[in-house]
Specification:
Blueprint lengths: L6 H10 L9 E2 L2 E2 L2 E2 L1 E2 L8 E2 L2 H15 L3 H4 L12 H8 L6 E4 L2 H12 L8 E5 L4 H13 L4 H4 E4 L10 H11 L3 E7 L11 H10 L3 E5 L18 E5 L12 E5 L46 H17 L1 H25 L4 E3 L12 E5 L4 H9 L2 E2 L1 E3 L3 E4 L8 H19 L1
Parallel strand pairs: 4-15, 7-8, 7-9, 9-10, 10-11
Antiparallel strand pairs: 1-5, 2-3, 6-12, 11-12, 13-14, 14-17, 16-17
Length: 427
């Protein structure tokens, strides 16, 4: 498409946008009395307006039914989580039995590593990406230490080539081949939080498993953002948070995936709890753990349904929209944002450097850009003028044009504010 850096052109794109109506489904903050341009859905998604009704329903049931709400609420609490199985499985490309909701992201990754990081004297190494999100780094190191191993020996980081911002697929495959028989686990973020790079999960999963290792994915920046086919890719396990692209609220519940090939493997270690016990016999209070056959068998504690309610509101919205429609708009609006950045760069005689891959297959709803020659004062200017974005040292801004609630006119308007901010600093 031949883009134009005009308000009229952006408005024309909005008029053709089949998802435009969903913008009104969200609450937007306001700055100086004006609705903001929101680019931080990769950190915390906006609140859907329908969320309150889902939470209020549980609060009302609690008030009217008390403990009886577990079984007699309109959405009984004891099986509330089962409502996620069908719609959430479509978001991540899984069988309904392969997905569950529980805990929070890093907790779920720890629980998955109990089952899928099983080091031996020979096979004990973990491949991960350098500069992964710090929580993943801390989690992996602590797991390695728990097994009495030295992180410097056990952890193998995938590195970027000098002068490059992204990790090449051929380098990932080469590293898997190099580690070979010592490889126990591959655990990478499906989308890098800093650069927005999307990894080829299908190819990497096969390579890791061909080497004899388990392969898992942290999908914090992938769930609700990119096309996932976890079942068909034969992924062993995955986990994701729900509060970024899936708009479930700050720090809210996590989703987890365990491939069905592992559901009946009773030799897998797991940290057990009664909510993962045979559902039909749970209240018999039996002494021996009999796990549910499916991802729900990895649950530990009774689920916090008040926290799950906002997530269910969002998941049902995703089910209405469908990932194909989201991805179609995502690709177009991200490309338009990239175009706007390029136009502004020329107009201000700047030195922008986009570090997100330009190949649409390797990027999703994020553009990370080095604003060479600019400092944090520009970020502060944007924030004060109604553009909520994310700053990363030394001078990178991350922009996530989330297709559910960002408009094409937002992209144009952002370009105008960005240009004004840069020019004001040059005066």
């Amino acid at each position: 498409m031949d883009f134009q850096n005009t308000r009229e052109f952006a408005q024309q794109l909005d008029a053709k946008d089949k998802l435009a109506k969903y913008r009104d489904e969200f609450h937007f903050p306001h700055v100086n009395g004006k609705q903001v341009i929101y680019f931080t859905g990769n950190s915390l998604g906006l609140q859907p307006k329908r969320t309150k009704a889902y939470v209020d329903e549980i609060m009302d049931d609690w008030a009217k039914l008390a403990v009886e709400g577990h079984f007699y609420a309109d959405k009984p609490w004891w099986d509330y989580h089962e409502r996620f199985a069908a719609p959430l499985s479509k978001v991540v490309g899984a069988l309904p039995s392969e997905v569950t909701v529980m805990n929070t992201l890093t907790i779920n990754l720890h629980l998955m590593m109990v089952s899928f990081y099983r080091p031996t004297a020979k096979r004990f190494k973990i491949i991960c990406e350098e500069k992964a999100f710090p929580s993943d780094q801390y989690m992996i190191k602590s797991q390695v230490k728990f097994h009495g191993l030295n992180p410097e020996d056990a952890i193998v980081e995938l590195k970027r080539r000098p002068g490059e911002h992204n990790i090449r697929l051929e380098d990932v495959l080469a590293k898997i081949n190099e580690v070979g028989d010592e490889l126990a686990l591959v655990l990478i973020g499906g989308v890098n939080y800093y650069t927005g790079q999307v990894f080829d999960m299908k190819t990497i999963t096969k390579a890791g498993q061909d080497a004899g290792a388990y392969v898992g994915w942290d999908l914090a920046h992938a769930a609700g953002n990119i096309a996932l086919e976890l079942h068909d890719w034969n992924v062993d396990f995955a986990a994701w948070c729900s509060y970024k692209y899936m708009n479930s609220g700050p720090g809210n519940a996590s989703g987890a995936f365990i491939h069905e090939m592992h559901h009946n493997d009773m030799d897998l270690n797991r940290f057990a709890g009664w909510w993962g016990h045979n559902k039909e016999r749970r209240f018999l209070m039996e002494p021996n753990f009999d796990p549910i056959r499916g991802a729900n068998g990895w649950q530990v504690s009774c689920l916090p349904v008040i926290a799950l309610a906002p997530y269910l509101a969002s998941v049902e919205m995703f089910d209405e929209v469908g990932m194909p429609a989201l991805i179609q708009k995502r690709d177009l609006i991200t490309s338009y944002l990239e175009f706007i950045l390029g136009e502004v760069d020329k107009e201000v005689n700047g030195n922008f450097e986009v570090i997100t891959p330009t190949d649409p297959v390797q990027r999703a709803s994020q553009i990370s850009v080095f604003l060479h020659g600019e400092g944090r004062s520009l970020f502060e200017y944007l924030m004060k003028n109604g553009v909520i974005t994310d700053w990363r040292e030394p001078n990178v801004i991350r922009l996530a044009p989330v297709p559910l609630y960002c408009s094409f006119e937002d992209m144009y308007e952002f370009g105008q504010v960005l240009k004004e901010g840069i020019l004001s600093h040059k005066k």
